[in-house]
Write a structure and sequence with these properties.
Layout: E1 8-12, H1 18-30, E2 37-42, H2 47-56, E3 61-68, E4 73-79
Parallel strand pairs: 1-2
Antiparallel strand pairs: 2-4, 3-4
Length: about 80
């Protein structure tokens, strides 16, 4: 029997209205427990979001590109201790 659970969630922000993207992402990140992660799927490099997250919560999230365009970007943002 496999007891493993997924510690990662994915959020496709391409289907979210532009004004709602960052607030939605921030709510999802705030709900993460330490060790959990959120994978963001976007149609452009979400680099400005990285600076925003770091400014709001310094040292609390890791950032790793999984896919870097040219049409699709996937970034894993994990909650650090």
């Amino acid at each position: 029997m496999d007891n493993t659970t997924s510690l990662s969630q994915e959020l496709d922000v391409t289907v979210i209205a532009p004004r709602d993207k960052h607030p939605t992402i921030h709510r999802r990140l705030d709900a993460l427990a330490v060790g959990e992660s959120l994978v963001i799927l976007n149609d452009h490099d979400p680099r400005p979001l990285r600076f925003e997250i770091e400014a709001d919560h310094p040292g609390k999230h890791g950032w790793k590109y999984i896919e870097q365009g040219p049409e699709t970007w996937r970034v894993e943002i994990n909650r650090l201790p």
